[in-house]
Amino acid sequence: MIKFPAFSMRNSIFARLVFTYLIVVVPIILLGVYLYQWSYHNASNDITRATVKQLEYYLDGLNREIEWMELQLFDTVEDSGLNKLSATWSLMDSAEQRESLNELLSRLTSFQNSSPYMKDVSVHIRPINKTVSAVNAVQPLDEVRFHTFNTRTGLTGSRLRLWNGKLHLSASKQNARNGEDPIFIVQIELDSEKLRRSLNQINLYKDSGSLLILEENEYTIRSHPQSDASILQFVQKASSTSDNEFRMEMNGKSYHLNKVYSQSLGLSVAAYLPEETVKRPLSKFYTWGLLFALTSLLAVVAFSYFSYQSIHRPLLYLVQGFKRMENGSLNTPIEHERKDEFGYLYTRYNQMLNKLQSLIDQDFKQKMMMQRAELKQLQSQINPHFLYNSFFILNSLARTGDLERIELFTNMLGEYFRFITRNGEDHVPLSEEVKHSRIYSEIQKLRFSRRIRVQFDELPAEMERIRVPRLIIQPIIENAYEHSLEKMAEEGIFRLTFEHTENEICITIEDNGSSISDSDILALQSRVENTVNSFESTGLLNIHRRLVLTFGAGSGLKLSRSELNGLKVSIRIRREDTKHV
């Protein structure tokens, strides 16, 4: 059991780092955070109070204007000249009618000019079938407006009426007879553009904006019509609550939102501004911020230098040692005189180098030699049964005089024996391994073309250059034919497919042979998984051992029951390890 040497607190890197951090960095950071939060909180509260006061002042002013309009509205309804005009129109001659209309028009014009928020004032008079407007003068009776403002159906007490995208006020002179239309209706149309401009007085800051909302219909007038629609949606949602202050995140920016509601008007007015604007009052703390920044910079420099001397440089020596080890240099120890934790690591690193040197000679080289020997053994094992059948097929083709197929078959047979007998590299591109396996499959198709159906997928282009050990696919195909497909009385099916992900590639060979039981598959899988500590050297175990030696744990063969009801063999190769082959 390894025991760490005892370290004094004076030599402990951990203790020195904690002490330096506590003495230099923490007080400055805590003080800076406290001052910033305190300043931000005060600035936010000041802006909120100022904004709410401004919103309340705006609504009070708007309410006074509406009350003035309503007063003038009801004065107009009770105007003697208008009532006389409505009652005695048919008794007047044309001159008196024109004079009465001109007097009414003059009154309406004066009425309109009495408030900046009135766009038009109209009187819809049923007895004379005329509409008199301060803007449009005398027109035929506007039946649509007359019937629209004749009823208050659907309203919930709001003094303002939304119609045709505009806000209106109205009052009517009721008929003495119940159930009949009013004698006339006085209608005021508010100027939405001037209301929008009036909202600019609320915008205390450059990036702020404001909205006027009719709660009953969620009708909104924006000070900035081009403002983000998502702000409008948030404000409309917020206006249904009783709070006066909100925070919202939108398009990566934070916003402050303040809202005030007028019960008498049924209106809310809201103002929003980016959080950056709230932080602007903190500019008066610039001197303090600069002082904190300089102090923090000095602390960072001092801490960085100490960390470099105590941690980074010693770690760099250790990293360089590991890089040399990765490149195969196991005879370059780290020379040192340190007595702290890194000194212990350097000593253990040097001991590890010596141990690795002996282990490589005893274990790794032995395994690599075994891998080469097993490959040579696999290459030298030419199945006599396959060789006999190949010559039998060649003889049959010669008898029939099929020269074209004889040429094709001999070429495939030559390519097959050239690949398995060559003494070149132990690893080949996957495209070559698949090509050899496809040739073997084509040779078998000549034998069993009527009994066995073959599905051999194309190799994906991104897998072609992956280097793999030689002879990892064809022996599995040979195993499928020899132990399963050749013995089947009905039609056999052989299938080879490819799959790949970021972490793994998989080559699947499966058949529909039913001669192997589930227990046989489990037993064979167990033998494959224990092949590292076994000296058995059959085809499947040989392939699995070479895959594990080449690509590491997690790679190799996996056996299971195929969807075709036969044996399914999956060749799995960890993708992250293929780059090192």
From TrEMBL:
Record keywords, A-Z = Cell membrane, Kinase, Membrane, Phosphoprotein, Transferase, Transmembrane, Transmembrane helix
The membrane-topology field of this record reads: Multi-pass membrane protein
SMART domains referenced in this protein's UniProt entry, alphabetically:
HAMP
Q: Give the main localization category.
A: membrane
| Endpoints of the signal sequence | none
Annotated GO molecular function terms are: phosphorelay sensor kinase activity
TM regions (residue ranges): 13-36, 285-308
**Where is it localised?**
Cell membrane
Where is the HAMP domain positioned along the sequence?
309-361
One Pfam entry for this protein is: HAMP
Q: Under what name is this protein listed?
A: Two-component sensor histidine kinase
Tell me which species this is from: Paenibacillus sambharensis
